[in-house]
Design goal:
The protein is built from 16 helices and 20 strands. The protein is an alpha/beta fold. The structure holds pyridoxal-5'-phosphate.
Amino acid sequence: MGLENLIVNEDNTIIDVWKIINQNVFNMVFVTDSKKKLVGTLSDGDIRRYLLEKENLNALAKNIMNKDYVWAYIDEPKENLLKKITEEINLLPLVNKNFEIVDYFQYKMSFHVPIAIPNLGGNEYKYLMDAFLSTWISSKGNYINAFENEFSKYCQARHGVAVSNGTVALHLALVALGVGRGDEVIVPDLTFAATINAVLHAGATPVIVDVEKESWCISPEEIEKAITPRTKAIIPVHLYGQPCDMEKIMELAVKKSLRVIEDCAEAHGAEFKGKKVGSFGDINCFSFFANKVITTGEGGMCITNDKKLADIMRILRDHGMSTEKKYWHECVGFNYRMTNLQAAIGLAQLERIDKILEEKEKLENLYKKALKNSKDIIFQHNNLKDRKKITWMISVLYKGDREKLMHNFINHKMEARPFFYPLSEMPIYKDYVFSAKNSKEISKMGINFPTNKIVNLELIDKINEYVM
Ligand SMILES: *Cc1c(COP(=O)(O)O)cnc(C)c1O
């Protein structure tokens, strides 16, 4: 990491400083004066403590920086530098004779590498503060509309209905489409359990089908086989950023008069034949949980091109209350609303979604390059016909001993994750299985590698040692 992400001017506001800290991996910055001389250091902890106590967002770096900090000359021997390292201080600014920062020294203790870190370094804080100060902190306010409009536009669809999370987005979609008792809904065997739970909460019967070997996504052939006169809907899941074959699925749906609800929780921005996921089905659902492509903390959205469906969902998410007559309830609704605070964060995230996706893709390419000699690692396909996947979490199949590899990760404080268990293997879902085969194999071999700003070549080289 270069010095430029590590130096701020003493006249920068602490919010600007925090943003820079949020982009770098050190949790701190060095502060310089107008003559570029080192005058202090500041950590994210210093800023948070100050804000909690003083609530002064306009404070400048020079007001709160540590003036009593540890530093070293660029030409000091390494033993000297090591002596200055303590439990708290593992990063030293290195200065020349004019006290200008010319380099830094980092002592690498093994530090925790989480699976994902939200990227909040844009306008998130600004919009959040604006929403907060407006006192519209509940589920009315300008950010809700703006986020709904902008996100549906991003998905190349007309309407967005923001909700409290991705799971209730799926439930709301099912209810709005009239899916309930006696109806069958086809879901893939390999997915996060929220997909099938939403079907069960709607009172419908899930039908679990196998996934494609190459894409890991629901198999159109298996869907076709599983259709019965009671089938009402299909929920294709764009798993780990890979789009499903939406052409075949939509053809089937039209032929058999079925509803389609895309589960796009892991694939914001992915495309099939040049069209964004979320623009194919009747209602399509996104999640903005903290580890997803963009986040609102907790949150979700239903996307549709059908104004009537959007209107029904708006009523259902707000207790089934009439939009014209307050406290007059037209149907038995839910409280599935998103708050203006969440939407404020979401809008700022959306401004940078292309950049966030680009960074993730770069990281995947770095992994691919660094691990190219490991024959046991198979990266997720990124050139399947008609499909443009995005990088959500780096997802690979491992042909070696996965348990051993997972242990290595744990021992090095790196958080990797095994893939989802197939739904068909869990006793609570066993009555709903139609087909499951590829899903079991993929699940057994699958691993998500840490996907965040901390990961660098050095860290991947460490992974390389375990997989060789
Ligand atoms: C995360 C996720 C959901 C649920 O989203 P929440 O916001 O956590 O409720 C649904 N489906 C899939 C495939 C997911 O990955």
